Amino acid sequence: MYAVEAVNLYKRFGDIVAVDHVSFAVKKGEVFGLLGPNGAGKTTTIRMLTGVLKPDDGTAKIMGIDVHEEPIKAKSLIGVVPEEANPYPDLTVRDNLTLVGMLYGLTQGDIEERIRGLLKVLDLYKARSRKARTLSKGMRQRLLIAMALISEPQVLFLDEPTSGLDVISARKIRDLIRSLAKAGVTVLLTTHNIEEAGAICDRVAIINKGHIVALGNPDELKIKTSKHMYLLALFNKPLKEEELAHYLGPYEYRVNGRKLSVICEDPGDVVERLLSYVKSSGVKMISIQTSQPSFEEVFLRLVRR
Amino acid sequence: MDNWRRTLRSIWAICWKDVKIYYAKGPIVVMGVLFPFFLWLAFQIGRGLEVKEGIAPLIAITAFFTSSAVTPIILPWETRQRTLEMLLARPITITRILIGDILASMLFGLSFSFLPVLYGLLLGIVPNNLGTLLGLLVLATLEFSTLGVLFSAMPTDVPADVVMISSAVKLPLIFVSGTFMPLNRLPEIMRCIALFSPLTYVTDLIRGLYGGGNYFPCILDISVTALYTGVFVLLTVKLHKITVIRRLQLK
Ligand SMILES: Nc1ncnc2c1ncn2[C@@H]1O[C@H](COP(=O)(O)OP(=O)(O)O)[C@@H](O)[C@H]1O
Ligand SMILES: [Mg+2]
């Protein structure tokens, strides 16, 4: 049994198809990332999986329970940090946590005990009596995570958990996610930050325009396209594009002033062609290097398709 | 814990949050409590009525205003503050959230409606059936609280929009529902309009209970109030289920 299962999820808003038959499955204890640009359909997917939105088609399952047939049962197993959500600004840190505990039907005793633990782990103990409106953005995000954890969920959903945070706060949250995973919690997060996905996810689904365009662990995704190399060359003068096109015709390349990058499988052939170009145009080549594509480049290539 | 206990507790959580956040706000209390009181006072003094005649309308408009003061703004406010989705992702449904909101509003409305009842009792103005009065007040605050929630079904994140619309409906209702002027003294045309106002039947029954003479039979007052309540509840749940999706998109 999978912790989370998306089968053929489909959702449209008017003419916009936000999520177009998306399927994937997250194993227990895995950190799974949904990576994609803005408007890709990440939030809509999360909302369908967490029972906030009803899919037009397809099914969402948490621990084998259909989220839309048994919403209360499925939702009791999960913790959610929605995108750009806020705790209640007029309630204290403690009251925000109590509220969520009550929503899960926990007893007052359980709530008190768990709050004590969470305040320590999330470094909010000193702020426990402050109103949420007075918290910094990093603290507010940690409070939201604490609120998602108070029910001791088996699966944690985080929609863009680090977006808009400073580097240190973001780091704290990433560390926390890894340690939760170590403790056996399944994590499904979304991000548009490739490095983040590469650093903390066991597996990543790349989503664009409502479609999953690639799925695998971050290293695998790099390997899949690695027969492509990147060749980068620097010249002493800006390049003339028409003339260059004559030599590099069949290749995918980008010119940026004196810089040239070419995607190729056989760098030797590109170098020969560039040398002919240098001879005929009189520019000088200052440096040349090849590299494996970074995760970011993989992402951009997949998304552009 | 049993399932139904969990359910009750989650509804109670919504109610608890509402009381802590919304019912502690000054301007809301002023608009919902002081405003109807002074409106009543103006009429009372203006027409030189005795307290005995005025107690029934005072109870009716207090129940009406206090119960519908806060409920219209809760959902727009939560949309604006981005706290709504945080609730929707928990083991609770939109229907249960609405029940919690209505419950908080009823507690608020009931506690303020008891004040004029107590005031009357202190002066020796006793309704001829206290039990019926209390039962009616529970039903009426449910009806008016739900009406308030119904207004908030418009998918906006600007609380002032809903306040404006709800005031535009609520204020005229006071004047056409036989509150300050008993139905039998209203002009014919007003009396026809009064037939459609939910406040009419509540006021009529309270006036009857205080010996001021019913216009309609008791049983009709109660049935129509119950009917309106049922319609409001169904409509509220139905509309909110539709508009809550649009709320999620408001930024
Ligand atoms: N409630 C909604 N109503 C209308 N359109 C929506 C709604 N939610 C999302 N969309 C549209 O669906 C698409 C996907 O949005 P979203 O899931 O928020 O993407 P992401 O989270 O990846 O940025 C966008 O084009 C967005 O405008
Ligand atoms: Mg999003």
- What compounds sit in this structure? adenosine-5'-diphosphate, magnesium ion
Rg of chain B, rounded, reads 18 Å
How would you classify the quaternary structure? Answer: heterodimer
Major β-sheet annotation of chain B: none
Determine the strand fraction of chain A and express it as a percent band: 25-35%
**Major sheet of chain A: size, sense and barrel closure?**
6 strands, mixed
- Based on DSSP secondary structure assignment, what is the total number of beta strands of chain B? 0
Summarize the SSE layout with pairings.
The complex is a heterodimer of chains A (about 300) and B (about 250).
Chain A: E1 4-13, E2 16-26, E3 31-35, H1 42-49, E4 57-62, E5 65-66, H2 71-75, E6 78-81, H3 93-103, H4 108-121, H5 137-149, E7 155-159, H6 167-182, E8 186-191, H7 194-200, E9 203-208, E10 211-216, H8 218-224, E11 229-235, H9 241-248, E12 252-256, E13 259-264, H10 267-281, E14 285-291, H11 295-304
Parallel strand pairs in A: 3-8, 3-9, 6-7, 7-8
Antiparallel strand pairs in A: 1-2, 1-4, 4-5, 9-10, 11-13, 11-14, 12-13
Helix pairs in contact in A: 3-4, 3-5, 9-10
Chain B: H1 3-21, H2 26-46, H3 51-67, H4 71-81, H5 84-88, H6 94-122, H7 130-151, H8 159-176, H9 188-194, H10 198-209, H11 218-249
The structure holds adenosine-5'-diphosphate and magnesium ion (MG).
